[in-house]
Amino acid sequence: QVQLVESGGGLVQAGGSLRLSCAASGRTFSSYTMGWFRQAAGKEREVVAAINWRGTYYADSVKGRFTISRDNAKNTVYLQMNSLKPEDTAVYYCAARSAATYLGRYDYWGQGTQVTVSS
Fold first, then answer.
1. Other C-beta atoms within 10 Å of 73: how many?
2. Which of 72, 85, 105, 111 stands the most exposed, by the fewest C-beta atoms within 10 Å?
């Protein structure tokens, strides 16, 4: 079992930055593919970024603005979000999967953290 707890969401003006953190339990954190997803009101959940030992993945909508990273010693994955836009407003979720691919079904999910970008 893996438990995930997100933090770092909040309200920011357009053009600003936020860093989300996701603390994970479990002794095999380094072996998991970690992903960040988001769900805006009235829309489907979408993948934002993912990371594992092979590298990183970004959705086209965030490339060049968001950076995913992880600290395996701290069992934590981060999402640095720069140049935020109002359309980035959503609940952001951290997720983990044991498979070594970025997309597909994720096994564990956090509770989500709200990010609101004002114009």
1. 8
2. 105
